[in-house]
Amino acid sequence: MTSTEQTLTAQQEAGDRRRWFALAIVMTAAFMDLVDVTIVNIAIPSIKQDAGASLSQIQWITAGYALAFAAGLITGGRLGDIHGRRRLFLIGIAGFTVASALCGFAANPEMLVASRILQGGMAAMMVPQVLSIVHATFPAHERGKVFGLFGAVVGLGAVSGPLLGALLTEWNLFGLHWRPIFLINLPVGIVAFLLGRRYITESRAPKAVKLDLVGVALVTLGLLMLLYPLTRGRELGWPLWGYLSMAGAFGVFAALVVYERRKAARDGSPLIELSLFRVKSFAAGIAVQTVFGVALGIFFLVWTLYMQIGLGWSPLRAGLTGVPFSLAVSTAAGMSVQKLVPRFGRGVLQAGALIMATGVLLYIWESHHYGLGIASWQMALPLVVMGVGMGLIVAPLTDAVLSEVPREHAGSASGLINTVQQMGNALGLGLVSVVFFGVIGDKLTRAQVGPAFVNGFQHALWWVAGVMGVIFLLMSALPKRPAQHVEGAADAPVAEKEPELVP
């Protein structure tokens, strides 16, 4: 081998190492976001007790993150296309790390809520760049292996988040109680930022879609007008302004539709591509994603409060109780995509909705039958059934929704799917004040807390079961056999053309 050939080989090997380092960095960032969503839920009761957070502030600690993430997700993707994915990724991860520090050192619940909203906004800058950078860094024939690794990271985040949150809260490191669940992001974020500057190659879209800041403002305003009265209404005695605000939210959403139509006609860069809703399967799928997000938002917050405050369990016991659920979701998700959906099509998703509803009803029965004496092992059966049902839905749903979407709108459709799921989650968290806190009552004595939370949990689960029934009906509009013909259909919003590498 000549010296020139040796030099070229060394350069190729260095480039290969560089892109795999870049992959590890962006996967770490994705893992941080996934864990941060699940890690907070398990610490909510500790935050309530230690920081003195009110019930509405508890909801906003979780819903504020989801709302900011949803509102900025599409814009974050477009900013990366315009100004560079590496640049936006670094801005996002730096901001996410700073926001995590502010959460960890929050002096009061109000500061914690504001910091969580900032954290969600920074996640919206960071997360859309992850799969865009993968597209820019790896050729098409290698992306299958890369997305398989991404799926493993998602599964690991789902399992490890609650356990990590439980351990950090239980250990009470340095007397900081719940704060380490946020502070753990600091060393990870700093290292990812420094390595990202060195190893991630900059890329942009050759022809990026323009920003739609007015659309973002209208979406955010409409959701705030809907969510704020929901979370504060019970505490304030459901004042008239709350009902007027919620009614006015639908007027804002109507104005959003009118504006988006004009924006599309003017420059072809709306926040929401309304023409997609002419595709029956896409419209139904968006409804499924939204309603499914509502169900998950209600369940996970109420479930945590039920176990730790109602039953008096430690964070670690609550975290370990959820392990069968996480494992069932991961296992069923893998089977649904690889073996079941190719053979049975839409029926797998509908079966998932019915199985999850069955698990919810079984959980209601067990909670009623065993009361305050229920054990972790007795919860395993309904949680596994629910996890199997959820796994059959979450993995193949995106492909089913996108299977009839025109190829040129794949990026817009993918971004919209991720956005509405987060919006549904925020709405579900807001509804907790109605379906759970509205049932348990105020000023409970210590003896009344347990029975009240058990009753509230059962009431909230009836809502979740009803939502799963609605999802089952909506799924009848999905294609019988989803065709995976849209490249990047399951991705976050990415460029619709091959990205342009920037030296």
What does this structure look like?
By secondary structure, the protein is mainly alpha-helical. It folds into 3 domains: 12-206, Growth Hormone, Chain: A; 213-270; 276-480, Growth Hormone, Chain: A (Up-down Bundle), CATH 1.20.1250. Helices cover 80% and strands 1% of the residues. It has a two-stranded antiparallel sheet with strand order 1-2. It is globular and about 65 Å long.
Walk me through the topology.
Blueprint: H1 3-51, H2 55-83, H3 85-104, H4 109-137, H5 140-171, H6 180-183, H7 185-199, E1 202-204, H8 213-236, H9 240-267, H10 280-310, H11 315-321, H12 323-344, H13 346-370, H14 376-402, H15 410-440, H16 446-474, E2 500-502
Helix pairs in contact: 1-2, 1-4, 1-5, 1-7, 1-10, 2-3, 2-4, 2-8, 2-15, 3-4, 3-7, 5-11, 5-12, 8-9, 8-15, 10-14, 10-15, 10-16, 11-14, 12-13, 12-14, 13-14, 13-16, 15-16
Membrane topology: Multi-pass membrane protein
Transmembrane segments: 20-44, 56-76, 88-107, 113-134, 146-164, 176-196, 208-228, 240-260, 281-306, 318-335, 347-365, 377-402, 423-440, 460-478
Domain Major facilitator superfamily (MFS) profile: 22-484
